[in-house]
Amino acid sequence: MPHVALILLAILGVTSPSCSCSEPVAEGEGEGEGEGEGEGEGEGEGEGEGEGEGEGEGEGEGEGEGEGEACSDIINDAVDIEIQNTTAPLPDPTGGTLVSGHYRATSQTRYGQATSGSTGIVRRIALELDAGARTYAMSTITPDREFIEAGNIFIDGVTLSLNPTCPSIPATPFNAFTVDGDAFRLYATGLADEIVFVRVP
Predict the structure, then answer these.
(1) Peptide bond preceding 170: is omega within 30 degrees of 0, i.e. cis?
(2) What domains can be seen in the chain, in order of their start residue?
(3) CA gap 69, 61 in Å, rounded
(4) How many Cβ atoms from other residues are within 10 Å of residue 140's Cβ?
(5) Sorting pLDDT into bands at 50, 70 and 90, what band is 37?
(6) Are the C-beta atoms of 3 and 17 separated by less than 8 Å?
(7) Which of 91, 92, 105, 141 has the most CB atoms within 10 Å of its CB?
(8) Which of 38, 43, 68 has the alpha carbon at shortest distance from 54?
(9) b/e for 17-31, b at 16 or more Cβ within 10 A?
(10) Is the bond preceding 17 in cis, omega lying within 30 degrees of 0?
């Protein structure tokens, strides 16, 4: 799928995607109908003389439209956050019990960097969790695009996997979590990246 790399980079804030990444909407002209009429008349007199006239007309028109449904109707009401670098080590995930609700990202930090400070990358991230169904929806808005994904959550201890079913892309790099009251901390340990979400009352 051509947008997979851009989608994953957009979630992590590595770059801004150049695609509209909900399920695609397609319109086209693909079906056709045709009508034809033909008439002929002929008259002949004498030997070897004859006249004939014929007319035929045909018209065909077709239109086809198709729309793909959006992955989720999640509303991104989060505020802008600026991704920060820090020289500190990534905190150890502690897991916990998922709590259903609507969450807004309040910070995103990259640990173990050579220097600390802002990356200048700004985004807004909203997350919805259904703890019973173990499903999620996430909206990431960059300065030029919004990407929405939805899928299933798999948990084993402190490890976690977000597996998108819409759009159909590989699992995201987030692989661990911590629940701390209304805070939900999502980690991509291989990239030393942490996003902190706070549940909306």
Answers:
(1) no
(2) 4-16+77-199 (2.40.128)
(3) 27
(4) 25
(5) very low
(6) yes
(7) 105
(8) 38
(9) beeebbbeeeeeeee
(10) no
